[in-house]
Inverse folding.
């Protein structure tokens, strides 16, 4: 069974954070620079929430707020859905579908984050895994060495 830690081992465990007092504009610039759809909002080592592209669309653009004057802490998602490093990929994908979320922090325990996985990370991992299976089956069928 594939676990969330397998994705982190493949993609890396880089965790991008932002201060809740930072402007939405600054957060968007960081997200664009690193080509990510979410940032963990943290203050003094404590996780406060998550700030996503959806937060920008719904709570900034949708409410016609000024992104330069709006603080991330005012529009972030405070209720986090997290998973453990040993959670199966199928389980976290199922939670993401049911809750209609695209990013899930991955925890090693109640206070330590190991990384962040997105639905894109899960899809990429699944494709890579399927391609490996296909190559193995072709090698088996045609008597080739892997």
């Amino acid at each position: 069974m594939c676990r969330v830690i397998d994705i982190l081992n493949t993609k890396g465990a880089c965790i991008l954070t932002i201060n809740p007092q930072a402007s939405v504009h600054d957060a968007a610039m960081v997200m664009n620079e690193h080509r990510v759809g979410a940032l963990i909002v943290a203050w003094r080592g404590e996780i406060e929430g998550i700030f996503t592209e959806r937060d920008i669309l719904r709570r900034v653009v949708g409410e016609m707020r000024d992104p330069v004057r709006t603080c991330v802490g005012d529009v972030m998602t405070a209720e986090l859905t997290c998973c453990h490093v040993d959670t199966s990929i199928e389980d976290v994908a199922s939670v993401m579908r049911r809750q209609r979320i695209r990013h899930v922090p991955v925890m090693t325990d109640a206070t330590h984050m190991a990384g962040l996985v997105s639905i894109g990370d899960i899809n990429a991992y699944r494709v890579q895994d399927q391609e490996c299976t296909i190559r193995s089956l072709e090698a088996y069928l045609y008597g080739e060495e892997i």
User: Anything to note?
Assistant: Helices lie at 4-11, 24-34, 53-61, 72-75, 89-99, 119-142. The domain at 4-142 is CATH 3.10.580.10 (CBS-domain).
